[in-house]
């Protein structure tokens, strides 16, 4: 586990490129045959990447967590970004295909992650927040998600938002999670941009073609900064920061939020004319 502290706007404004990347960008989230967890100061979120090979990988509580097991006081959302696999929860196995979602509530003890084939491993992306209550385990396929079409081709931001864990969908304590897929030829996400004063947000970009990149915009609207992001890398977005971007090709990204509420539309707009 490699902790990421939350920085203030004043601290962030003085960072050089390498410091900005080490503070907000998680580059090596997926490594074959390993579990990587990154605890953060963003509403106590933990993100993780699990890529099993021939053997299952068990998610345990490290000493840093001060818990008997990982979900003793937490909830967890999982989206598979790779080939088919499965998640075993307290002895029950849940197959998880590409882009499918599994919500696991507080109190579940034994968690193991499995790839259907070591030659074509699954890539389980995890987001976990503290939980004050236990909600039922829930599995969702892509067709179960609430699909919301946004943008248009002329603005190069035609995209579909797939909502899994949200109000009206899979219930949770505070986790909100899903993913956005840009249409072919569209490259802009989250335009016009906004901030969330009542919660933080984390993006994990995926399906970025080899050799292409996403330019992720962050920072206060009047003090923007940028991060060049590769496939399966994550960006931590504090409540004061915009989270928008454009790519050299179409791509997708998992978004996850935690904080005071679960209203998807609780946003504070940052009009384009105010950006600097």
Tell me about this structure.
The chain is mainly β and 276 residues long. The chain has a single domain, classed as Jelly Rolls (Sandwich), CATH 2.60.120.10. The chain is 5% helix and 41% strand. The chain has 2 helices and 23 strands. A 7-stranded antiparallel β-sheet has the order 1-20-17-22-14-13-12. It has a 6-stranded antiparallel β-sheet with strand order 2-3-10-5-8-11, with no helix packed on it. A hairpin with a 2-residue loop joins strand 6 (85-89) and strand 7. It is globular, with a radius of gyration of 18 Å. It starts with 8 loop residues before the first helix and ends in a 7-residue tail after the last strand. The model has no long low-confidence stretch (mean pLDDT 96).
CATH class: Mainly Beta
Structural class: mainly beta
Q: Order of strands across the biggest sheet?
A: 1-20-17-22-14-13-12
Quaternary structure type: single chain
E-strand count: 23
Briefly, what is this?
This protein has helices spanning 9-13, 17-24, and strands at residues 25-26, 35-39, 46-50, 57-58, 74-80, 85-89, 92-96, 101-104, 111-115, 124-130, 138-140, 146-150, 159-165, 176-182, 188-189, 194-195, 199-206, 214-220, 223-229, 233-237, 244-247, 252-259, 268-269. With 276 residues, the chain is mainly beta.
Helices and strands in order:
Elements: H1 9-13, H2 17-24, E1 25-26, E2 35-39, E3 46-50, E4 57-58, E5 74-80, E6 85-89, E7 92-96, E8 101-104, E9 111-115, E10 124-130, E11 138-140, E12 146-150, E13 159-165, E14 176-182, E15 188-189, E16 194-195, E17 199-206, E18 214-220, E19 223-229, E20 233-237, E21 244-247, E22 252-259, E23 268-269
Antiparallel strand pairs: 1-20, 2-3, 3-10, 4-9, 5-8, 5-10, 6-7, 6-9, 8-11, 12-13, 13-14, 14-22, 15-21, 16-23, 17-20, 17-22, 18-19, 18-21
